[in-house]
Write a structure and sequence with these properties.
By secondary structure, the protein is of the alpha+beta class. It has 6 helices and 8 strands; from the N terminus they run H-H-H-H-H-H-E-E-E-E-E-E-E-E.
Length: 270
C-alpha cells in the first residue's frame, strides 16, 4: 500500500471519529445570547431602544429589566456617551429619549437639561365638589316684587406686567430662500445666557414655543422660530401670557427677502 493511500485512509478515519464525537458523544448546545454578550454597536442599539420604549409607554419596571440585561457597571457613562453622539447631530427624538432615561436614573448631564426643561408635567385640577340642594318643607307662592334693573358693571382689564424686558431689538434682512425668523437670546440678571428657557410665540388662534440652548454654536441662550408671511406674532417668556414683544410681522426688506427679528431679553429691573 502506498504512502498516499495510507494518509488518505487515516484522514477519513479521523473525520469519521471527529463527527461521531461532535454529534453523538458531546454535541454542541446552542443558547440565546444576552445583550451583554453582543458587540458594542448592538449594546448601544439595545440601550437606545430601551430609552425610546420608556419614552413611549412610561413602563419603568420593563425598562429596568432591559437595562439589567446589559450588565453595564458604567451605565451612566454609557448613557452620557450615547446622548452626546446623537445630540451632536442637532435636536432629535433619540437624544431626548436618552436624556429622559438618564434623568430617571439620576445620571443627567448639563447638556441634557435643554431637553428635560421642555418636558411639562400637567397640573392636576381639583375635582368639583357636588352641591347639595336643600328641599323646602313647604312650597310658598312667591309674591310679585318690583325689580330695579342695575346697569352692568364694567370690570377693567389689567394687562399683566411681564417678568422680562427687551434689552436689544434688531431687524435683519434674510438672504435667498431662508425663511424669516424670530430670534431670541435670553439672559439672566447677571447678563449670562440662559439655556433651557421656554419662549412662547403666540398669534391669533394659535401658539407655539421653543426652548433656548438647542443651538449652542450660536449662543447658549439662543432659540428661533420660523415666521409665516400672513401672521402677526407676540413673544413671551415662561408662559404665553407674559408677552414681552407684540405685533411682529415678516415685513419685506428694502433689498430682498423678508425681515427677521432678533431680540435680547433679560429680567425686568424693579
Amino acid at each position: 500500500m502506498s504512502t498516499r493511500a495510507l494518509v488518505l485512509i487515516l484522514l477519513v478515519i479521523g473525520l469519521v471519529l471527529g463527527l461521531g464525537y461532535a454529534w453523538l458523544i458531546d454535541p454542541v448546545t446552542f443558547s440565546e445570547s444576552s445583550p451583554a454578550q453582543v458587540t458594542k454597536a448592538y449594546r448601544e442599539a439595545w440601550l437606545l431602544m430601551a430609552a425610546e420604549a420608556y419614552a413611549q409607554d412610561d413602563d419603568w419596571e420593563r425598562t429596568q429589566t432591559r437595562l439589567d440585561a446589559l450588565r453595564d457597571p458604567n451605565l451612566a457613562q454609557t448613557l452620557a456617551a450615547a446622548f452626546d453622539q446623537y445630540n451632536a447631530a442637532g435636536p432629535n427624538a433619540k437624544a431626548r429619549a436618552l436624556a429622559r432615561l438618564a434623568d430617571r436614573l439620576n445620571a443627567s448631564t448639563p447638556g441634557m437639561q435643554v431637553y428635560l426643561a421642555a418636558i411639562i408635567t400637567p397640573t392636576p385640577r381639583p375635582s368639583p365638589t357636588p352641591r347639595v340642594s336643600a328641599t323646602p318643607h313647604r312650597t310658598e307662592t312667591p309674591r310679585p316684587t318690583a325689580t330695579l334693573e342695575q346697569p352692568p358693571t364694567l370690570t377693567p382689564t389689567v394687562t399683566p406686567i411681564p417678568d422680562y424686558q427687551v434689552i436689544d431689538r434688531r431687524a435683519e434682512c434674510g438672504h435667498g430662500k431662508q425663511p424669516p425668523q424670530i430670534r431670541v437670546i435670553v439672559l439672566d440678571a447677571l447678563g449670562q445666557s440662559v439655556p433651557g428657557k421656554e419662549v412662547w410665540i403666540t398669534w391669533e388662534g394659535g401658539a407655539d414655543r421653543f426652548v433656548t440652548g438647542l443651538k449652542p454654536e450660536i449662543d447658549p441662550g439662543y432659540g428661533d422660530f420660523d415666521m409665516q408671511l400672513d401672521q402677526t406674532y407676540n413673544v413671551g417668556v415662561d408662559k404665553p401670557t407674559s408677552v414681552v414683544v407684540r405685533d411682529l410681522r415678516a415685513e419685506p426688506c428694502e433689498t430682498e427677502g423678508r425681515t427677521s427679528w432678533r431680540f435680547i431679553l433679560g429680567p425686568r429691573t424693579p
